[in-house]
Design a protein that fits this description.
Alpha-Beta Plaits; two-stranded antiparallel sheet; 49% strand; elongated; binds ligand 2BA
Length: 107
């Protein structure tokens, strides 16, 4: 068995969960926060048999878009005092980790 851990944009999460559930995949949704942007994102835990991993990855790929966001990085000193410098950040459609599951119990 494998555990697919997918970090996705909040705006994609609802549709993605619906698509996964409609294909009979169980999903646990965790509210998470990106360490860099410090804004909310969604982490999904999906336990699946090894042969279904590609199926899950396809569904995630189809339902998650890449985005660009403008952020202000650490202020620097300018003539008018501290100014913030805008920086464009590419946020991936989904960041995915696939882990081996040693055991899976349900009590
Ligand atoms: P954040 O940490 O808020 O990062 C958001 C986006 O900011 C990242 O998009 C990346 O494009 C950029 N970024 C992150 N760290 C950076 C840095 N030190 N310098 C410049 N730009 C930086 P993604 O790579 O698509 O990541 C989206 C979210 O997925 C991340 O949100 C984080 O919550 C998670 N994530 C990404 N890679 C991870 C990893 N290796 N381990 C754990 N979580 C990860």
């Amino acid at each position: 068995m494998k555990l697919v851990m997918a970090i996705v944009h909040d705006d994609d999460a609802h549709r993605l969960i619906r698509e996964l559930n409609s294909d009979d995949f169980s999903v646990t949704k965790l509210s998470s926060t990106g360490g860099f942007l410090k804004s909310g994102n969604t982490t999904l835990l999906i336990g699946v048999s090894k042969d279904k991993v590609d199926n899950v990855l396809d569904i995630i790929k189809k339902n998650c878009q890449t985005r660009k966001e403008l952020i202000s990085i650490t202020p620097v000193t300018g003539d008018a005092g501290f100014i913030s410098v805008p920086m464009e950040v590419n946020i991936g459609g989904a960041t995915i980790f696939v882990l081996d599951v040693e055991n899976n119990y349900k009590f």
